[in-house]
Design goal:
The chain is an alpha/beta fold and 547 residues long. Strands 7-6-5-8-9-11-10 form a seven-stranded mixed sheet. The chain has a four-stranded parallel sheet with strand order 3-2-1-4. Helix 25 links the parallel strand 8 and strand 9. Helix 4 runs antiparallel to helix 5, helix 12 packs antiparallel against helix 13 and helix 14 packs antiparallel against helix 15.
Amino acid sequence: MTTPSDSTEAAFQLYQQRQYREATRLCRQTLQQYPDHIDALLLLGITACQLNQFEESIACFQRVLKLKPSDTNTLNNLGNVYRAQGKLDEAIATYYKVLTLNPRHVDACYNMGIAFQDQGKAKFAIDCYEQAIALNPNYVNAYNNLGVVLRQQGATEEAIAVYERALALSPDFAEVHDNLGSALREAGALDEAVYYHQRAIALKPTPLAYYNLGNVFLDQGKPQAAIEAYNQAIALNPNYYEAQVSKGMSYLLSGDLMTGFTQYEARWGEKQANPYSLNRPLWDGSPLMGRRILLVPEQGFGDTIQFIRYVSILVRFGGYVIVSCQEPLLRLFATVPGISQLVSVQAELPQFDVYLPMMSLPRLLKTRLDSIPASVPYVHAPAQSSVQLQRDNTLAVGIVWGARDEFIAKYPARRRSCPLIAFQRLLQVPHVRLYSLQKGDAEQELEQLGWRSQIQDLSDQINDFADTAAAINQLDLIITVDTAVAHLAGAMGKPVWLLLPYAPDWRWMLDRTDSPWYPTMRLFRQSYPGDWAGVMEQVTEALQQMK
């Protein structure tokens, strides 16, 4: 005769084999005859949670707690169900109950850290993981999660040390190898990052590990190796859209614009057929013949400035061109020939027949390196402006050193930004006067360095990109990191020197000192990650040659 314990043991074996539905069925059969069988209730609570049957799981754990009110393991499991549901406040409150009953319950510490991490409360998450490690110095998962939070907080070196401690405890923990590789990438140790990602793949070949390896290859300027890694990620997960987008960026970096822009459409994920969910079709590239086409912006200001150049082509296709754009670009785009109607992204859309995201234009118009529409200027300074520079007979050079993260991307502001102190050499060039076009937090560096007497700060006069254009129009040269100002100066046909990190954005490609997108642009590149001193040495020499 089968006893309830036998049935529960059989269910547990099925659970271990990940046959959750069969395990759940056996537990339910047992509980029909023995409603208070604690082991069956506990196992059903666990298996039901695995099947996302959260209400049944909660009911099982709550019934156990009626029978055993101080059972901290059951309370911990209940907190895990709340966390799986996304009820993070309830989960944290439950973990607190566990720790009130047993302050040394290490799993409750760890799980509460996960809940705080999911809430974006990094400090509390770090405290929980450190407490879990204090209770159990061999808790490898706690080390791993602690490293993740530290990385998110920008404490890359601390994260690396934590991951290394985790690997000392568990040398074959594939996820830690992968996370350490990502942290080393952020620290600029690219060769080491490759090693750890490859080690992670050898231990457990996941799509994420291949994707992360591809990112490092891309940073190393090896687009073909990156493409091969992304292909492996996509083979394991055909719907891995982020890997598909990165693969497209690799082709773009290598100069294969046709393939790159086609692959780049994956940025919309499953919404490629109608990415903005507008009640009109996407333009298919056919003659417009008077139809009203709406161009919608995406990503940052620089992207919008770069791709507004395609308006002239749409006019040749016979289109009535409506442009929706970010508010700071409205007055600037009023100077773009061919735009019939401008509207802020915050305003109600006018009537239109077809639409297209701006960065889909190059694909649809079959843009190659030799067919980029690069006639400049295609934007202009406003006819009237209150922006006035104090000029003399020196070479007037506008500078920007700090980039901003306008959207979440693989090309963060910290990589693009250069500390203002690196421009110190330029202050020694006798025939040059510097003007700051910098906006945002990086403006503070002028005050911190005490350079306001040496650099004319124009930030108070600049309220939008039309004002920036008016300032650029009065300057002889722009020297800038990769920001929207670089695109604006290039679109205006002004001489612009672009300061690039070792791993540049796709649009600047590799090795070139010029840009097919902007004929008046000159590129200065780092020789290795973080080499702003080398870049500024090149810039100084070039400035000294100008009269």
